[in-house]
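Supplementary Methods, section 5.1.

A reviewer requested that the exact input to the structure prediction be made available. We therefore reproduce it here, unchanged from the version used in the analyses.
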Amino acid sequence: MTDIFRIVIQFAVVLFAISIHESAHAWVADRCGDPTAKLMGRVTLNPIAHIDLIGTIIFPILLAVMGAPVFGWAKPVMVNPRNFRNRRRDGMLVSAAGPISNILVALGVILLLGLFNNPIMQSTSTSLALLIKIATYLLMINIFLAVFNLIPIPPLDGSGILEGLLKGQALVMFEKIKPYGFFILLLIIYTHALDSIANFIFTILFKTFPFLIFIMMKAGVVG
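The structure derived from this sequence is encoded token-by-token as follows.
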């Protein structure tokens, strides 16, 4: 597979993963009583509705060109918490919806790869090899996107979940930290702390589903 083709596939997978993620936020918000995102056309898998020029296009392509793990972000889903039936609970549900949607996609991919494990390993079809490569990218990117967004630092989804759990002085302290969340994230990325988190997650994944490592090796995704 040429580098250009690899970048195109990874970019397409990122678009799909981000669209799933953001539409899940919008759908759950609507179910919780706030139609704001739905009225803005965000309950859709059409990536055009979710594209952010830097986070959805430029950043993922740069990562792919550099050979780094590919991920990105989309336009934030706008919600009006005053419309929620239970502001604290529903805020947490909306925040959790995005990462959960990515985890469900990843589990679906694992299930399919597990069901067709033997035919995959015995096949020499180039078409099947391409499908397996796409599936493994879909698995890895959705897991990475879910884990990254669950970090409890603003503006990531994990911070919305944490905020719903905090009370009293702890909540006051969290509100003071919020304006510096983006800079904390930059520090985490700069120090490669995400690499350690990703390695830990995939180590658990491969130990739980050992057939995945062989499938990924066959597809040429891992060495």
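Residues 133 and 219 are 5 Å apart (CA to CA). These observations are discussed further in the main text.
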